[in-house]
């Protein structure tokens, strides 16, 4: 290699060092407070908002991980107020010795009172700021403040945020009676055409009522445990009501989000006995239609299930006939769940969380211009919703339904 060529390479490499300034904006981990969950409520002071955060306590978590006995709670719960969410967050500087770090916050929880008034004024920073996670789960605490929900704990987990996430994942995978919604999905539905958003419905269980863990350092008794079930229904940015568990699974049937679940049907040919059917897979499709200016929608569901357990196990019956009867009964349960959700949304809540309007908009954009103006208050409540449900049962676990008993 020519000497001049080597010289130029050295000059170029040396000059690049001038532009390498190092980690000029580095943040030492010892200076950060890791937020794991965030709660938003209206403050006691008029026109102010209260932000409550769960902050992980590293020393307690390390002690547990190393096999030691950590009697303290693994998180610090602290609140701050301000006229805007941004100001409330900055005001934590007056209480925390470390700078709050939001990239690990897994939950954004709103109290019911604030959610019914509307959450549009407090959402912006969580979408705008680059440090917050748009994948944070968005939940509404039914019957109380978000700060109260963040007090709850679970024996199996050191951090409450992890407990909430575990309950959500098992509820979604095991029964499909909850909704899994993050901040990004909520905002997309909020800004969407012909669809309204839903959020996770959070609750708490008192145990026992005479013990209050707030302010206690030792984690000896858990007085309030979390529960996640059902769904919170919005109309625009305001909470308008709730779906219970069957209604939520009806919502998930329509949206194609049913993963698994147990469906109970009465056992054919044997009175007052039940069969547990385990849903293995499901597919859903929404088919909109407009005939003579009148819109309608058909929910098409295909489901496959196994027989999980049977009462009156020694009562032998015709397997083929019983399987067909159970398929029909399971289809009826699915239809009932779908229509329960639709009926409540149409009659009571007047909120098209299913996206029927969005499906019409995509399929019939010209007709949608006529329908969109008062869709939630008039078009959606008058929408005819039909169902087409097909169920297929597979393995019974035995050759016959029922086990012959030796006499």
How many distinct folded domains?
A: 2
Show unreliable segments: none
Alpha-carbon distance between the two ends? 98 Å
Number of helices: 13
Major sheet details: 9 strands, mixed
- Radius of gyration from the alpha-carbon trace, in angstroms: 27 Å
Specify the helix fraction band: 25-40%
Count of DSSP strands: 13
* Approximate shape: globular
Order of helices and strands: HEEHEHEEHHEHHHEEEHEEEHHHHE
Q: Whole-number average pLDDT?
A: 86
Which structural class best describes the helix and strand composition? alpha/beta
Can you describe this structure?
The chain is α/β, with parallel strands linked by helices. The protein folds into two domains: 217 residues, no CATH class; 164 residues, GMP Synthetase, Chain A, domain 3, CATH 3.30.300. It is built from 13 helices and 13 strands. Strands 1, 2, 3, 4, 5, 6, 7, 8 and 9 form a nine-stranded mixed beta sheet that branches. Strands 10-11-12-13 form a four-stranded mixed beta sheet. Helix 9 crosses helix 10 and helix 11 crosses helix 12. The protein is globular. It starts with a helix and ends in a 14-residue tail after the last strand.
